[in-house]
Specification:
Rossmann fold, 6-stranded parallel sheet, Arc Repressor Mutant, subunit A, 8 strands, homodimer, 8 helices, alpha/beta
């Protein structure tokens, strides 16, 4: 499935929850399209590709639609995640309580300083880096947010892979590479690894660049 | 210029600074390609498109290369930025000192609670939301990071646009829409607006989805 379509489906799913919370029971492709910013025909095409069928003139049953999309998005159960590196960004993410509605539950933090959370109240336990394998395996955590200093990111990534984590959100500038026995794509036979990068400095640089290009009238 | 190429250029620029700090004076397309994870021929092609010419066998002069890329990236001077909304994420960004090497200087924060920074030391002044227009215009800030609660994001966005901000990094889940007198792309005649979105919950959802699809062997 194309990345753009995945993004749209996650957006549909969110919008539907909001509409449901307002009291709607049925929705039309036009409602969803307006809220997400795409045409109704794109919405209908996406649903059709996913074998989700509405009723003529009756639109879609909102509960059934949410159940279908949740299943497609793998949100049937909530996914456990760990934050590795509890500095400024890591600590902010640990305390952010908006992920649960996305089916993501942060259950552990790791840092070289396990007392980092004693100063203020901490919603999850903070373990030392030495406990990564033990805790990740025990809690069966498959998802990790890496927010350590760049120079230790590769080492942390390797240890998390070795502990069974398969999904990574990388907040460092390091380009993470899976070591052996993973292949170049980071896969063991039958296993897959997904790494997404969030690089705030790079985003800001790109915005400046795009504005400069626009000023120079070079942007098409 | 294609978005992928912009991303590569910003990566080249970073790698070159690192190599320079190690003491290198000349670099080859192969060096850069290895560090960034692309082939040397892509590096050479990018440079050729940018009219950057190396010497046969001698590679590229690292200082000249950085100067050229900085100019292309609009990093000749440093860009002033503001953080609007100084909650957990906003505060972490305010205190992050890694942007300066990217030519980005955060010079102001805005929050409904201007005393938010009194508890711990704050690197920049925090102003009340009412001062947005005054401060943004006085400091000639063109770049803003929006980290307010979702329900106030659109209002803040409108006020920032009205104050002259043209580049936005949006950390909220709100889909920001430019109001009149901007056109649907958010432009006044001769002006351009660039909005990038960082949605951490959405990123995590997508990672879970991609892993699920991989498990089901549906991912091509």
């Amino acid at each position: 499935m194309h990345q753009d379509m995945i993004i749209r489906i996650t957006k549909y799913d969110r919008i539907l929850r909001k509409l449901k919370s307002i009291g709607l029971e049925r929705v039309f492709a036009n409602n969803i399209g307006d809220a997400v910013g795409v045409t109704a025909s794109i919405v209908r095409k996406d649903f059709s590709l996913l074998n989700i069928i509405g009723q003529k003139r009756g639109g879609y049953d909102i509960n059934k639609l949410i159940t279908s999309l949740d299943h497609i998005l793998g949100k049937d159960g909530s996914q456990k995640a760990a934050v590795v590196g509890c500095g400024r960004i890591g600590s902010a993410l640990l305390r952010y309580n908006g992920f649960e509605s996305d089916g993501i539950k942060i259950v552990a933090g790791f840092d070289t300083n396990t007392r980092i959370c004693e100063e203020s109240d901490c919603p999850v336990p903070i373990y030392s880096m030495e406990k990564i394998k033990e805790v990740i395996e025990r809690e069966q955590i498959k998802l990790a947010i890496i927010a350590v200093p760049e120079q230790t990111a590769q080492d942390v990534f390797t240890r998390l892979l070795d502990s069974g984590v398969r999904g990574f959100l990388n907040f460092t500038q390091a380009g993470l590479r899976a070591p052996k026995p993973f292949d170049t794509l980071g896969n063991r036979p039958g296993e897959h690894v997904v790494v997404h990068n969030v690089n705030i400095g790079l985003e800001l640089e790109q915005i400046v660049y795009e504005l400069n290009m626009a000023d120079k009238q070079l942007l098409k």
